[in-house]
Predict the 3D structure of the following.
Amino acid sequence: MNPALSGALERGEIRRGDDFAVAPAPTLASGFPVLDAELPGGGWPRGALTELLPGGEGVGELGLLLPALARLSQARGCIVLVAPPHRPHAPAWAAAGVRLDGLHLVFPRSPRDALWAGVEALRCAEVAATLLWLDGFFRAGLPANSLRRLQVAAGEGGGAAFCFRPQPFAAQSSPAALRLHLQAAGRQLRVHLLKRRGPPARQDILVDIARPARSASGFHALAGPALPAAGERRERRRATA
């Protein structure tokens, strides 16, 4: 092999098509060895966007992240949830090992606010992990330029970045470094690697994961009813006065 090419491969400037890319930043172990074995660097990328596209709500998408989030939290890392579809159920998150004093929730009121909050959380070096649910603010889903902004912001902050998107967007291209399609498979979670910095995955991954039980109200134990916006709360108070 040409010495110059060999040196570039060793430094990670380029990679062979059948090899994993050299991780541009430290990775975060997922807590599932069977999954880590298929992720470049052996875990969730830091400083890069990861897209999670579940086949439905509550298939185990949060459970897949909780082991890693708990470790970050126990190390006093700050975790930010931007526009979660439901209010997190505090006892369930605490039981999973997440420190509630380090869990911050952001409920934007407009597409502009949602994107701004996501970008600023990702850019903040003090935020260890950011979880985003932003597609609901946009009629046709997150625009490609918005996804690029999120990817760039994740690189600036260096934390773990997870963007939850509806399954239909799996067919679209994305600047995210890692993309996973998630489906329930009995008591397991089926993970299909749509994109990674390395060769295509040869088969899906089955992960043993505990799905949250549903409460009497019908919501998952990890989530409660969605928080109403401030304006909605004011209207409710007027209606009951």
About this structure: The chain has a mean pLDDT of 83.
